[in-house]
Every structure is written in structure tokens, then in C-alpha cells.
């Protein structure tokens, strides 16, 4: 074939850029939105996303982009995606990646980099991103050829869902993204064919062992943790506790698995149950600081742990039985295993449930005066009470703060699975606005109610403007005590009031004016009786809103006072 013919054939060959390969890989994974802050290294990804119909949400800080991608993953069950530029763009996102890592939330962070022909020459914003990310991701790599872009994305997604899920990172240089290769030479994994979908129950013999343990238990209880939502296992969990008549407690994203009023839903008596149960089943929750590193479980109880990650089972505390696998599949298998028993022990456990209900009623009565208090300044428990009463079956509740959110944790009862969001065990402040953003984008039909501490809102609050710009209405409530109270309590306990009020006092900020300035709805609330009407007006406004509620700075949540770091 003459040279001219070869050149003509090459000229007509379909080619594709690296940025467009990224977009195709995201589309194959079912991702319909990316969160980003622009930079010169990454703009070809935007062009590809526009061609693939992927929505681009541009934010004001890369930490917000990472948190929003984390939130998107939690809400949808699909991996999220954030795209940031090199150098400070990537380092700004690190907090969001670290938070997702501790919370077991799968999202892909794509970071830019200088061209390979400028490697180690000091190009703009050049940093060793991959080395920095390795310790807080499940997978971190750079992409060195345009042909491998989509293939590397599929590899990252596969790692994101291996065992307990988590974030992954890809560094892609400007020349790789801008480069064009023949489409037929690029590896484009086919949707649904590059990672597994099996929900493992682990060893079936362990399922039978667990069934035997529970059938013979007189006073069992179960803690339904984050992975119950991660595995979308609510229906299986409900069938399990009802079949065996087991009282259930919920934490993290597991909240809402059972609706308020369900006979197996318990909230106030977890410590009492752990002290008195003969069998304790811990599902999708590590024995970390929230569990007193396992020391809060009765010494004589039979402890069983179910988790997606083998490294979590038996960590910090011995267990009688550990099962590694999908908790929904395990719940279903255990329910099936006990279905043929003449007596599965359910009826015999009714006195145990009545005992717990009596304790719950006693504890509710003890705190009722504060829940209904008209004191001024407003007691945080009254604020939490009003928020819980305001929730609908369609409201997603987000907690973003320290002490004020700790108060709400013992009061607010989400009405359905997936309707509670908090940062998770890293305790990151600033997730509220990005989580609200992700939630409204992924499920616009649902209402979003977010409780902020005043110190918390200040961290990422400028992206309230992003909510306005993209018309993403939500109801924001700032519990404003002009302090970082969760830390202040510990300082005062350790150093006394004269030295304890250092580094934790904030200004008296009227956040309603901030909301109004940016085009949202805002109100100030000074009296408890004003809370509900203000919430109603925010709901009716149809805008992003901030209700600034002035609460008592000298009221501390029991969870704050019991923190192990102050002991």
C-alpha cells in the first residue's frame, strides 16, 4: 500500500483522548455526576463528561469535592468521583479522602499532574501525589499511557469494593489526558464485566454456628452498624430480628434500619443491654473508640462479630465467633437456618424485651424536662427534640458538628434506612454542606435537614453558594453557642475554667445573614418556641436555608463528657 494510502487510513481512524476515556469509564460504572474544582491539568475530563452526559458540579474547595463524592457513594451505593488538579488541588482533597477511608466509603479521586516529559523538572504544582495517598486509600497509582486510562479506572473501582469499601486514587498527567490514541487500541472494560457481584456469607458452617448460638440465647442483642446500609441489608436485618425476636440498636449509617416505634427498635438502653446480654452480635462496626475498644461489652457475654473486612474481626477484643462477608447475605442465611427449628427461642425472649422497654421508658422520662425545656438560652436537647419532631418519612438527616450533634444522636430517629449521615469515625468537621449537596443531587425528591455546629459550618460553609447556584434546597440548622464545645469541655476539666476557655471561643456570628447574602433563606432563633415555625418557613422557602439557633454554651452532651480522651 502506498504511503499516501496509509496516511489517509490513519487520518480517518477513530481516536479518543485520555479525558474522554475517563468519562467513558465513569459512565460504565454508572456514575452520573462528578464533583470538582477546575485546574488546567484536568479540563479534558470535563469535555469527556459533557459528551457522556455526566453532570459537573464545580465547588469552591477541593475538600468539599471529596466529601461530596464520599456522600454520593453513601447515598447511591455507587462509587463517587471527585476530580481535582495537581499540587494544592490534590492536597486540599486529602481530608475528604481520609474521612472516606475511615468511613469505608468508595469513591475515586482523580488528580492532575504535569506532563511526563517534565517529570522531576519542577513543573507547575508537581508533588508526589501517589506516595501521599497510599496510606489513606485502598489503591493509589499513576496512569502512564493514554491507552490504559479506562483500564486503570476499572482497576481502581475493583479495589474500591474489595472487602470493606473505601476510596481510591489515580494520578493522570496532563499529556495523558490530552493525548489521543486510536480507539481500537484503548482498553475499554465492558460495564458489569470487570468486577464481581457476589455477596459472600463466608463459611456456611459458621452460619449454622451463629444460628445455634442465637436459638439458645436468653438475652441476645444486636448492634446494626454502618455496613448494614453499605450492604443495603435493611430488609434482611429486619427479617432477622423479627424472626428471632432480638432487640436491635443502631449506630452510624445503620440508623433508620428499623423505624421509630418498631418493637425491636431500641436507642437509650445500649449500655444496659451490653451489661446484661448473654449474646451480643456486632454487625459492621469495629471495636474502636465508639465501642470503648470492645471494653463496653459484657465480660461474660458470647460476642459474635460480622464484618466485610477480616482485619476488623476480633481486633481489640476477642470474639467467640467471627464471620467475614456481606451482612445482608449472612442475615438471610441465618434466618433461613432457624426457620426449620421447632423452637427458635423467640417467645422466650419476650421478658428480655419487656425489661429493655421498661429501662427505655425510665430513661426517656428522666430527660423529658430538658427535651421540652423553654429555657433561654435554648438547651441543645430541646433543639434535638424539635428536629426529631420535624422529620418526615422522606427526610435525610445529616449531623455535622461536635457537641450539638452528639446531643442529637440520642434523640433524632431517622424514619428509614439511608436517612442518617455523619462523617464516621474520623470525626471530620465540614461534611454537612457537601453531604447535603450529594444527597440532593442523587435523590432530589428527598428533603435534606442538616444540623451544624457553628464552628463546623465555618469550615466549608462557603459552598452554601454552590447549593444556591445549582438550586439544591436544603434545611440547614446551626446550633450556635459561639464555642467549640466538645473540646472546651475537656479543656475545662483538665485545666480549670480560667485556662480551659482558651482556643475554643468563637465570635457571635449571625449565620442567617450569611445565607441571605448568598441568595438563600435565613432566620435567627432565640427562643425554643420559635424553632418549629422557623423550620417550617425554611421548608416552605424552597431555598438553601440556615436557621441560626442560639443554644446554651454551658450545656454538654453526655457523650462529650464520657469521651475516653478526657479520662
What tags apply to this protein structure?
alpha/beta; 567 residues; 6-stranded parallel beta sheet; single chain; 19 strands; globular; disordered N terminus
Detailed description of the structure:
This protein has 567 residues and is α/β, with parallel strands linked by helices. 41% of the residues lie in helices and 16% in strands. It is built from 25 helices and 19 strands. The strands form four sheets. It has a six-stranded parallel sheet, with helices on both faces. Helix 12 packs parallel to helix 14 (327-339). The protein is globular, with a radius of gyration of 25 Å. The termini are far apart. The relative contact order is 0.10.
Summed up:
The protein is of the alpha/beta class. Helix content is 41%, strand content 16%.
Layout of helices and strands, plus pairs?
Elements: H1 3-12, E1 15-17, H2 18-28, E2 33-36, H3 43-52, E3 55-58, H4 62-76, E4 80-84, H5 88-92, H6 94-103, E5 107-113, H7 129-133, E6 139-143, H8 149-160, E7 168-173, H9 174-178, E8 180-182, H10 204-215, E9 220-224, H11 226-230, H12 234-244, E10 248-250, H13 270-276, E11 279-283, E12 302-307, E13 321-324, H14 327-339, H15 350-371, H16 380-390, E14 395-400, H17 403-409, E15 420-421, H18 432-442, E16 447-453, H19 454-460, H20 464-469, E17 475-480, H21 485-495, H22 497-500, H23 511-517, E18 521-525, H24 531-541, E19 545-550, H25 558-561
Parallel strand pairs: 2-3, 2-4, 4-5, 5-7, 6-7, 9-10, 9-11, 11-12, 12-13, 14-15, 14-16, 16-17, 17-19, 18-19
Antiparallel strand pairs: 1-8
Amino acid at each position: 500500500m502506498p504511503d499516501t494510502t496509509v496516511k489517509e487510513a490513519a487520518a480517518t481512524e477513530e481516536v479518543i483522548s485520555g479525558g474522554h476515556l475517563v468519562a467513558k469509564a465513569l459512565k460504565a460504572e454508572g456514575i452520573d455526576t462528578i464533583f470538582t474544582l477546575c485546574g488546567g491539568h484536568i479540563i479534558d475530563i470535563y469535555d469527556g463528561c459533557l459528551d457522556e452526559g455526566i453532570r459537573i458540579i464545580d465547588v469552591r474547595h477541593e475538600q468539599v469535592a471529596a466529601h461530596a463524592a464520599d456522600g454520593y457513594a453513601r447515598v447511591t451505593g455507587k462509587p463517587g468521583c471527585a476530580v481535582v488538579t495537581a499540587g494544592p488541588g490534590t492536597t486540599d482533597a486529602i481530608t475528604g479522602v481520609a474521612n472516606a477511608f475511615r468511613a469505608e466509603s468508595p469513591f475515586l479521586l482523580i488528580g492532575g499532574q504535569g506532563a511526563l516529559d517534565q517529570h522531576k523538572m519542577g513543573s507547575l504544582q508537581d508533588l508526589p501525589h501517589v506516595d501521599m495517598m497510599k496510606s489513606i486509600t485502598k489503591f493509589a497509582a499513576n496512569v502512564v499511557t493514554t491507552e490504559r486510562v479506562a483500564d486503570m479506572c476499572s482497576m481502581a473501582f475493583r479495589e474500591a469494593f474489595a472487602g470493606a469499601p473505601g476510596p481510591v486514587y489515580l494520578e493522570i498527567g496532563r499529556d495523558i489526558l490530552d493525548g489521543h490514541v486510536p480507539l481500537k487500541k484503548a482498553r475499554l472494560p465492558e460495564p458489569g464485566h470487570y468486577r464481581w457481584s457476589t455477596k459472600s456469607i463466608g463459611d456456611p458452617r459458621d452460619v449454622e454456628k451463629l444460628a445455634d448460638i442465637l436459638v439458645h440465647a436468653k438475652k441476645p442483642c444486636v448492634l446494626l452498624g454502618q455496613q448494614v446500609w453499605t450492604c443495603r441489608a435493611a430488609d434482611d436485618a429486619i427479617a432477622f430480628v423479627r424472626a428471632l425476636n432480638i432487640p436491635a440498636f443502631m449506630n452510624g449509617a445503620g440508623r433508620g434500619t428499623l423505624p421509630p416505634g418498631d418493637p425491636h427498635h431500641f436507642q437509650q438502653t445500649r449500655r444496659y443491654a451490653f451489661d446484661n446480654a448473654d449474646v451480643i452480635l456486632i454487625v459492621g462496626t469495629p471495636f474502636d473508640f465508639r465501642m470503648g475498644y470492645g471494653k463496653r461489652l459484657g465480660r461474660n457475654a458470647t460476642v459474635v462479630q460480622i464484618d466485610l473486612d477480616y482485619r476488623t474481626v476480633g481486633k481489640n477484643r476477642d470474639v467467640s465467633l467471627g464471620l467475614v462477608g456481606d451482612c445482608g447475605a449472612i442475615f438471610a442465611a441465618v434466618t433461613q437456618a432457624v426457620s426449620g427449628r421447632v423452637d427458635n427461642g423467640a417467645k422466650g425472649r419476650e421478658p428480655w424485651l419487656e425489661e429493655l422497654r421498661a429501662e427505655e421508658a425510665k430513661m426517656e422520662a428522666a430527660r423529658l424536662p430538658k427535651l421540652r425545656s423553654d429555657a433561654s438560652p435554648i438547651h441543645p436537647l430541646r433543639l434535638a427534640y424539635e428536629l426529631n419532631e420535624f422529620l418526615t418519612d422522606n427526610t435525610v438527616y445529616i449531623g455535622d458538628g461536635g457537641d450539638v450533634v452528639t446531643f442529637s444522636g440520642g434523640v433524632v430517629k431517622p424514619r428509614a434506612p439511608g436517612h442518617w449521615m455523619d462523617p464516621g469515625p474520623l470525626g471530620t468537621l465540614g461534611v454537612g454542606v457537601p453531604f447535603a449537596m450529594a444527597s440532593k443531587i442523587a435523590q432530589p425528591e428527598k428533603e435534606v435537614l442538616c444540623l451544624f455546629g457553628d464552628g463546623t459550618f465555618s469550615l466549608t460553609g462557603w459552598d452554601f453558594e454552590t447549593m444556591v447556584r445549582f438550586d439544591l434546597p436544603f434545611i440547614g440548622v446551626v446550633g450556635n453557642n459561639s464555642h467549640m464545645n466538645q473540646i472546651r469541655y475537656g479543656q475545662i476539666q483538665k485545666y480549670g475554667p480560667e485556662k480551659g476557655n482558651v482556643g475554643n471561643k468563637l465570635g457571635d456570628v449571625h449565620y442567617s445573614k450569611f445565607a441571605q447574602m448568598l441568595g438563600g433563606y435565613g432566620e435567627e432563633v432565640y427562643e425554643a418556641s420559635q424553632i418549629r415555625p422557623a423550620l417550617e418557613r425554611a421548608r416552605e422557602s424552597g431555598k438553601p436555608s440556615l436557621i441560626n439557633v442560639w443554644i446554651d454554651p454551658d450545656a454538654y452532651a453526655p457523650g462529650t463528657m464520657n469521651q475516653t480522651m478526657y479520662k
